[in-house]
Design goal:
The chain is of the alpha+beta class. The protein contains three helices and nine strands, in the order αββαββββαβββ. Strands 2, 5, 6, 7, 8 and 9 form a six-stranded mixed beta sheet that branches. Strands 1-3-4 form a three-stranded antiparallel beta sheet, with no helix packed on it. The N and C termini lie far apart (about 95 Å).
């Protein structure tokens, strides 16, 4: 009987040690490095669009009037410049009016736009916008396409300018 007691005591002590050993912090396994790719590396192009020197922003009316003759400029992360092939332009024009039935003033918003080849707004558009330009109006340059290399065309980030 004594023999069984000693044996069971030893088993209890050994099981306690094994539980204690397992409850310790797990060892960190070193992170495995990914295997080298067996093909050409693909780099993601990151373009930055500007109108003249301005990124999308809220700009004073006087600056916008000067900026209307400026070209769209697209650069990559290495500051290389790429020619703009085409873009879509939308002009959000806001006009105040007096509602005939309620007698209260309201705001009428009209969107006018078109697609253009090249990097600048046509002279006719520039002249007309200078006549209408007012605070709160918005310019959108969307779907800006640049010639990357050879015959490769890429879409650059869009721009939005608010007249203050």
């Amino acid at each position: 009987m004594r023999k069984h007691l000693i044996l069971s005591g030893i088993l209890v002590v050994m099981s306690a040690f094994s539980l204690y050993a397992q409850s310790g912090k797990p060892k960190a396994t070193p992170a495995k490095k990914p295997a080298a790719a067996s093909g050409p590396t693909i780099t993601k192009l990151r373009f930055r669009s500007t109108w003249g020197i301005f990124l999308s922003d809220s700009i004073p009316r006087s600056e916008i009037a000067k900026l209307l003759d400026s070209a769209l400029v697209v650069r990559d992360e290495k500051n290389n410049k790429y020619p703009v092939v085409s873009f879509e332009f939308t002009y959000e024009n806001k006009e105040f009016y007096l509602n005939d039935t309620t007698g209260k003033p309201g705001i009428y918003t009209e969107y006018v736009g078109d697609s253009f080849k090249g990097d600048k707004l046509p002279a006719l558009w520039v002249t007309r916008i200078k006549e209408l330009l007012d605070k709160g109006e918005v310019f959108y340059f969307d779907n800006i396409i640049v010639n990357y290399t050879g015959d490769k065309l890429y879409r650059a980030p869009k721009l939005k300018f608010i007249v203050r």
